[in-house]
Amino acid sequence: MKHLLIPALLAAAWAPAAQAAGSLDKIQNIVVIYGENRSFDNLYGLFPGANGIGRAFVEQSYLQTDMNGKVLPQLPPTWDKPGVANKDIPQGLPNMPFSIDAPPINQPLNKATNDLVHRFYQNQMQINGGKNDRFAAISDAGGLSMGHYDGSSLPMWKIAQEYTLADNFFMGAFGGSFLNHMWLACACTPVFKDAPDSMRAKLDANGNLLTKAGSPTDPLTGAPQYQDGAVTPDGYGVNTLQPTYQPSGIPPANNPALADSSKHPLPPQTQTSIGDTLSEKKVSWKWYAGGWNQALNDRSQIYGGKINFQPHHQPFNYFSRFAPGTPDRAEHLKDGQEFFDDIAKGHLPQVAFYKPQGELNEHPGYTDVMSGDAHIAALVRKLQASPQWKHMLIVVTYDENGGFWDHVAPPKGERWGPGNRIPAIIISPYAKKGYVDNTPYDTTSILKLITRRFKLAPLPGVRASAGDLTAALQD
């Protein structure tokens, strides 16, 4: 079957498979580890038995076009900045996926590449109705968007071979990290009705971004420049916004616990989150963030310093329930070191989320793949040695695709997503061993799993059509 966004085919493909949940009641601890910015094909496109890059070559579904639908004669250069090509990646690469870590490029997994645009409207324009054929034309990194790795040397690849790799798992929302962290927390898009006009995207009649005056029109000569913004015209936050509560990318003005309100942080949100539904049922849970305490105590570590702490990766810090000084904040928002300590002591809560700090999260631009992958794999091994392991389920996945191409069309959803395919690995004594799970999932499947296991009230944004990960469990 060709992976195109054809409604009749997608209706069938996106219907959840029959789910074997005989082991679910035995799970007492669910751990979610949330990496950064990798499409499935970028890391696992060569994984044996998975729907990988080879399928794209059979179907010839990889060809990239310009904005008029004309097939490009070659990939655009990898842009370092507007009009300036990267010297380490050759120009004139053929119009097809290429190996970043093989000749003629030979950039290993422990070397960071350029960052790539991964924003709400650009992502939809790259997907182009399911063709996935405008990644190179729209990316501010040009042809790099078509790059992938041989991930077989990665420690997490080996863990995926031991347990279950989901090869039909999609990011919850279009675009970047901010919105996809919110979708992990609440399956919702934040509201910013009073955002100034300067923060709102400017769209044409088709809902696509308007270009700036003088924007390049040929992808081979430069990346397009758009009249983009963090907020939709009708007041929803879809690209990176800073929290009102510290740690924030906006320094305080008077109150050291708050961002300067004149710089327009996102107002505290009040939508129902998975934290609310867990607390309502008295199910213990924590969000552990690498570098949390350091970022609170030293602003130089926010978007910089050794740990490169990313405030927009901390979704619960955007909600009024977790305001500074509240009991819920003290109980649920924790530093990453406490995660390591709780693993060793066997004191993890029933639901644990872990967010690696910037240097260890695999995000292109400011870190490499191998450092974060090795960090996550080491944590998995520590979890396996924990007293709680025998009744544990771990989900290792990524927030979004990071602007990297993937050959599988996202399922037809709604205004917010789902976006492109990303890796997800299900690890548990009860997970199927050496298994590739083709069940359709997205980020909200994690919420669905937690909700089902602990009999929570369902969150309204969780997609009914997506599976709940129980197909990865043994009968």
TrEMBL record:
InterPro entries: AcpA, Alkaline_phosphatase_core_sf, Phosphoesterase. It comes from the Bacteria. Residues 210-274 are annotated as: Disordered. Gene3D superfamilies: Alkaline Phosphatase, subunit A. Keywords: Hydrolase, Signal. Residues 1-20 form the signal peptide. GO terms for molecular function: acid phosphatase activity. PANTHER family: NON-SPECIFIC PHOSPHOLIPASE C1, NON-SPECIFIC PHOSPHOLIPASE C4-RELATED. This is Acid phosphatase. It comes from Undibacterium oligocarboniphilum.
